[in-house]
Amino acid sequence: MTESVRQLGALMRKEFLLEWRQRYALNGMLLYIVGAVFVCYLSFNARRGQLTPIVWNTLFWIIQLFTAINAIAKSFVQERAGRQLYYYTLASPQQIILAKIGYNTALMGVLAVLGFCTYAFVLGSPIADIPLYLLTLALGAVGFSASLTLVSGIASKAENPATLMAVLSFPIILPLLLLLLKVSKNAMDGLDRSVSWSEVGTILAIDAIVLTLSWLLFPFLWRS
Amino acid sequence: MKKNWWKGLAVLILTYVILQGLVGGVPRQPILNESIRNVYFHVPLWFGMIIMLLTSAVYSIRYLRNGRFDDDGVAVEFANTAILFGFLGCLTGALWANFTWGEPWPNDPKLNSVAVGMLMYLAYLILRGSFDDEQRRARISAVYNIFAFAVFVPLIFVVPRLTDSLHPGNGGNPAFGKYDMDSQMRMVFYPAVIGFTLLGVWITELRVRLRRVKAVLEE
């Protein structure tokens, strides 16, 4: 048990190191989300507080979704096949997928917070219940990375990974996205938190389902 | 002949369902009026679709467990028939909605969920198309199929119930089991579910056999 936890830690550390050494990719993603926010800001030509709450919220989550897809799509194409084979001789596939999901969650968390800050900075923040909104950001980071990591693994095996990644992940991510939109809208309106708990529970349940499935299915994926 | 009794059963049941659906007695309901007959066609198509998607996922699991190509073929054909049933379900539903809700595609969470579900399975077919290597295609699309079914279930059964839907059984509306259907209608409705499912299995069986024949001819 402790051994596998140690291996998991080593794999996660490897992911972080790899990202840090290829800083251009990380910087690219940071710039991507800031750029996307700014494009939306200028396209709407909105002064602070002019967007209605629904538009504000939806636009933010759409930006999050596209950032997530772009950031996670590269989690399997970054390394060459030979090196991946080498990892598989060292660790079990379950550990590899968990390490990737863990790393992607951290990455998505950073991107979400950065995106949120930029977004609130340029477009103003009409949020009444900020802790709950941050909780939805965290739940979103876990859910996006759990479901998109496996999809990116699937897409990376095919001929045109980029298109396939989008086609496969949009419908898969939608239930999660709708629930996140609902809870974050509740947080914006400052509704009583008891209203949101059932949705938070459902989001957690969906997160659990996709995590378990990634854990179960990834061993079949890497063998090919 | 002994092995094919269920095909006869399907024909028998569907004849009964169509006859009952067109001329049988139905209770008079406000708004629904005669369009309640659609419950014999629209709802069983969806039930059949979900049963077939489940079967497809089960065959994908079987493929991953034993690696027989045939199981993957069965899985994809079940998914194909389910998509066909899904389109027919949309069509009958649009017809029905046009008369009861005033427009063929009202902005209803259940409709949108189902549309997304269909996108998911169309993506499955596209995924299959993007591999050259057969073994790889079978394995990876089996993985995706299982994943897709696991997301499809909350999409269809959980998300519409969290919001308001026009469909019975969602958003606090009573399910049709409660009082929309009397016992006479149930005598048609439950056989209709079985009949349409059997029809789906029949279509799938034909396509699977065609696939097997083609596979043998290619060798």
Task: Summarize it.
The complex is a heterodimer of chains A (224) and B (219). With 224 residues, chain A is mainly alpha-helical.
* Major sheet details of chain A: none
Beta content of chain B: under 5%
Helix content of chain B: over 70%
Q: Quote the beta fraction of chain A.
A: under 5%
Shape of chain A: globular
Structural class by sheet pairing and helices of chain A: mainly alpha
Given the helix and strand composition of chain B, which structural class is it?
mainly alpha
- Summed up, the helix count of chain B is 7
Low-confidence stretches of chain A: none
CA distance, first residue to last residue of chain B: 30 Å
- Total E-strand runs of chain B: 0
Q: What does the radius of gyration of chain A come to?
A: 18 Å
Main β sheet profile of chain B: none
**Share in helix of chain A:** over 70%
Protein name (chain A): ABC transporter permease
Family (chain A): Belongs to the CcmB/CycW/HelB family.
Subcellular location (chain A): Membrane
Main location (chain A): membrane
Feature tags:
heterodimer; A: 224 residues; mainly alpha; globular; B: 219 residues; 7 helices; 0% strand; heme binding (chain B); Heme exporter protein C (chain B); membrane (chain B)
Question: Which SSEs are present, and which pair or pack?
Answer:
The complex is a heterodimer of chains A (224) and B (219).
Chain A: H1 2-21, H2 23-44, H3 53-73, H4 81-90, H5 93-123, H6 130-156, H7 161-189, H8 193-222
Helix pairs in contact in A: 1-5, 2-3, 2-5, 3-5, 3-6, 3-7, 5-6, 5-8, 6-7, 6-8, 7-8
Chain B: H1 5-23, H2 42-66, H3 69-100, H4 109-129, H5 134-157, H6 159-162, H7 183-218
Helix pairs in contact in B: 1-7, 2-3, 2-5, 2-7, 3-4, 3-5, 3-7, 4-5
Domain Cytochrome c assembly protein (chain B): 13-160
Pfam family, one (chain B): Cytochrom_C_asm
Subcellular location (chain B): Membrane
